[in-house]
Write the structure tokens for this entry.
Amino acid sequence: VASNRLVLSQTLIAAGTLRARQGRDDDRGWLDRADALAREYPEVETVSPVTPALAERAVLRGDLGRARELAATGDAAAGGPWARGALWFWARQAGADAGGPEPLPEPYALLRAGDWRAAAAWWDARGCPYERAMTLSLSGDGGALRDAIRLLDQLDARGAAPLVRRRLRALGMGAVPRGPSAYSRANPAGLTEREVEVLTLVAGGLGNAAIARRLFLSAKTVEHHVSSVLRKLDVADRAAAVAAARRIGVLA
């Protein structure tokens, strides 16, 4: 029974965190249910703490005071060093000037020491683009903030991207990159209108050079669009991209 509660808690936290990062209002109360479960069964919070996820949701919703409160009252012994590090990280995102627990896992320790580049590189080397982007968001560097926005837009992290855009505007760094268009948001794979155009021609058997001539683009630009399509559809080649697009209704 205890193991079932732990699995339920982990599932609720994962689903609720994903929806918070996507900026979805219909989070179905999953994090709140995980919180209620942890309050009823304290051993669940010890192994699978929900507090870092609640702090992240508070930051993404702009409730920085709530995030700092959660960090201040969270169980310092819960979840091990990674959970404690995550809670420290979201307190930092909320503006808390906290030294953090000891020891902090490497990426958090690097960030605390002021080496945000090394911290972001640590996440990047392990295939964690969201964590990399949110680390870059704390840099105070215009170029790094633009990189963070680009990553978050690629991930469709609509809950987090506005936070970083506000930070970039506060730096007075000129034009702030716009988010995905309404067309991209409505597309099942997040493809842009141009990417669908390119993919349609790929489905028609055209190579990059022919597509470039048809659309009056450079071959390099077409190559970029094709690579973006493959990444968004999570496939390895053009044939698989066409098949995946037809399967989800992007192509007829």
